[in-house]
Amino acid sequence: MHFGLDVRSVVVAWARMRTRLAILIGKMTDPTRITALAVTTDDLLTAVEATTRDRRITVLRVTPPFAGRMRARLHVANMDTNQTTTSNKNTDEDSYVIRPNDEHAVNAEPITIDPERFIEDVPPLPTVDSIEDKLRKSPTPYSQSRHREWYQTALETWRESVRDRRVDTVTLDLKNQMHPVDVSYLGWLLTSPHFISLQQSVAI
Questions:
Q1: 3-state SS of the chain?
Q2: Domain extents for the chain?
Q3: Which residues lie below 8 Å from residue 94, measured CB to CB, with a gap of 6+?
C-alpha cells in the first residue's frame, strides 16, 4: 500500500520544525522579553524585613522560561547548606501572570532582584531595643506588655510606610544590559486596614 509519503519532504518538514523549536526556546531564555513583573506585597515586605533585620540573602526571583509578564517570588538562600527556598503558593493570583507551563523546558539562569529595588528609600526598621528606649523615655510607665504593644504598633507603621513607597518600575540587572520593567503588586488591598475599614463603613 502506497501512502504517497515523500521521505525528503518529511525530512525537510522535521528540520523546519526543529529550527522553529530552537528559535522558540531561544526566545524563552531571553529575559529582555519581560515587560512586567507581578509581586505579592506580603512577599516584598517579608524580603525587605528579612534583609534588614537578619541580613539573610532574601530576594525576589524570576524563573525561566521567560514571557512578557512574569511572577517574582520570595526566595531565601541558605548560606550554610547552599540550599534555597522559594515561595510557591498556589493562589488565584497566579492566574494574573501569563507564563509557560513547563518551568524546565529551557536551560536559563533565574533572575534575582534585591527587594530594596521595589521601594523608594526604605525607612529604618524599628527594633525591640529602640522601642524600649523610646518607651522608657516617655511618661508612660514601662511594662513588658506595653513594650510588646508599642513594638507591634511601630512595626505595622513601618510596614505601612514601606507599602506607600513601592515603585511602579524596576530595572533588571542583566548580564549585558539594564532592562526596565513595570511592576504590579498583588494581595495587599483585600487585607489592608484601609480596605477593611471601608468595608465596615459600607456595611454600616
A1: CCCCCCHHHHHHHHHHHHHHHHHHHHHHCCHHHCCEEEEEHHHHHHHHHHHHHCCCEEEEEECCCCCCEEECEEEEEECCCCEEEECCCCCHHHHHCCCCCCCCCCCCCCEEECHHHHECCCCCCCCHHHHHHHHHHCCCCCCHHHHHHHHHHHHHHHHHHHHHCECCEEEEECCCCEEEEEEEEECCHHHCHHHHHHHHHHHC
A2: 31-122+165-203
A3: 71
Contact between residue 26 and residue 98 where contact means Cβ atoms under 8 Å apart: no
Could you tell me the sign of the dihedral formed by the alpha carbons of 10, 15, 20, 22, in that order?
positive
Quick: pLDDT tens for 88-100: 544 433 433 334 4
Query: Is-above-0.85 flag for pTM?
Result: no
- Spatial CA neighbour of 153 closest among 174, 135, 175, 166: 135
pLDDT the model gives residue 80: 42
Task: Look at the chain and count its residues.
Answer: 204
Amino acid at 91: T
- d(CA 141, CA 112) in angstroms, rounded, equals 46
* Nearest-angstrom CA–CA distance, 36 and 58: 21
